[in-house]
Write a structure and sequence with these properties.
The protein has 420 residues and is mainly β. It is 8% helix and 35% strand. β9 and β10 form a beta hairpin.
């Protein structure tokens, strides 16, 4: 969570890998089980992951240093589980599954609560609010136009944020809890085919912002020059420049203590929320992995139809891991900065470090303000040594293949032989 180490899954084991100095640690050492979807808790103490150690998919939590035994958090697994998401208070896990359910579990009590179950498709793109009291997700609909929803843990009520006219997804709360960010396909600029004599619609998405509370001002409202506003703006810019020019503390000098942040409380006014959706003035394309920091910068990955032409090694990456443009949109000056090409990225929970993937290489860098520079910041994932019991691994592979057929292809009652 602070960029000092990463959690890596290799050959079904969990490895804690140092950013620069130190050696990787094999946390699980389980040839007979497939661990996957590992994620660090925001408080830095725990690793959550999926494992089939019982013969079915279940959620587990273990200490980040590998000490002690893992805790099995769920029971009665009956299908394939997707990646868990920690609540910001590190007390709950949210996940979806092949049976199209969205659920969360309380770590302490192990009580499971179902948020939603869809009729038409798997639920993906789910996230927590910064105060751990709200959940957002994209639900597939009958007309193939996914809608974004909110769920309150306090009253267990759902709120539809978008309507069924446009397909929407990738919802995420801003770090300050004022906004909900999402991607939505609302740009209709068809091109006409030379052979098919039909319209082709591509690059329809942009990033949109929703003000959650009625009294939150629209940050993208039209600007208007008023008497006295120019001087006020100059004072704000001067104060910002003074803050940025403050000299850093020398190695022997004690750094000034940071003021503790006020706890975020997310306020949602459901009435009229669908009328409080505004789009960023950016190039239409396909957007994913959105994150808005406290400094009003919105990070995202954009991929357009033109990026697919002549791309090398296209088959090496999944649809959610292909080369895209990593961008940052500054909400204050309403300008976008293209930071560079990247296949994926992840920002630490404290918003200070970024893990960026470029092709098959990784780097851990400070949050960029301009073009990303990975030189001298490479994150080498190597030395992942493990003790392998091949017979235990073969048995695990056999039963995982059976579950894959049951869950994704054939039948829930698919017969299983070779139980030994």
């Amino acid at each position: 969570p602070d960029g000092e180490r990463t959690i890596v899954v290799a050959r079904g084991d969990l490895f804690s890998v140092p950013a620069k100095n130190g050696t990787p640690r094999d946390l699980s050492k389980t040839s007979g089980a497939h661990e996957r979807d590992a994620v660090w808790s925001p408080d830095g103490k725990w690793i959550a992951y999926n494992s089939d150690a019982t013969g079915e998919n279940e959620l587990y939590v273990r200490s980040q240093d590998g000490k002690g035994e893992p805790q099995q958090i769920t029971n009665g697994g009956d299908t394939y589980y997707y990646a868990p998401k920690w609540s910001p208070d590190s007390k709950k896990l949210l996940w979806s599954d092949r049976l199209q359910r969205l659920r969360y579990v309380d770590i302490a009590s192990k009580a499971v609560t179902q948020v939603d179950q869809d009729k038409f498709g798997e639920i993906q793109g789910y996230n927590w609010s910064p105060d751990s009291q709200w959940i957002t997700w994209a639900r597939p609909e009958e007309n193939d136009m996914p809608r974004v929803y909110l769920y309150s843990l306090a009253n267990k009520q759902q709120t539809a944020v978008t309507d069924s006219w446009y397909g929407s997804g990738e919802p995420v709360f801003s770090d300050d809890g004022k906004y909900l960010l999402l991607a939505s396909a609302r740009d209709f600029k068809p091109t006409f085919g030379d052979q098919e004599f039909a319209n082709v619609y591509r690059d329809m998405q942009r990033v949109y912002l929703v003000t959650l509370a009625k009294d939150t001002a629209n940050p993208l409202a039209p600007k208007s020059d008023e008497v006295g506003k120019a001087a006020e703006k100059r004072e704000k810019e001067k104060a910002k420049q003074t803050e940025e020019k403050k000299p850093e503390a020398s190695p022997g000098e004690k750094k000034p203590e940071e003021k503790p942040k006020k706890p975020v409380v997310v306020k949602v006014d459901p009435d009229g929320i669908q009328n409080r959706i505004v789009g960023l003035e950016i190039t239409p394309g396909n957007y994913r992995n959105i994150r808005m920091l406290d400094d009003n910068r919105i990070f995202y990955l954009r991929r357009t139809a033109g990026d697919e032409v002549g791309e090398e090694d296209e088959g090496l990456f999944s649809e959610k891991d292909k080369k895209s443009h990593l961008c940052a949109y500054n909400l204050d000056d309403r300008k976008e900065t293209v930071l560079g090409d990247a296949n994926n990225y992840q920002i630490t929970f404290d918003g200070k470090k970024m893990l960026v993937k470029i092709k098959k290489d990784y780097a851990i860098i400070d949050i960029p303000k301009d073009k990303i520079e990975t030189k001298d910041h490479e994150h080498k994932i190597q030395g992942l040594d493990m003790q392998l019991d091949r017979r235990a691994e073969w048995r695990q592979i056999y039963f995982e293949c059976w579950r894959q057929m049951r869950d994704f292809f054939f039948s829930p009652t698919m017969p299983r032989s070779c139980r030994s």
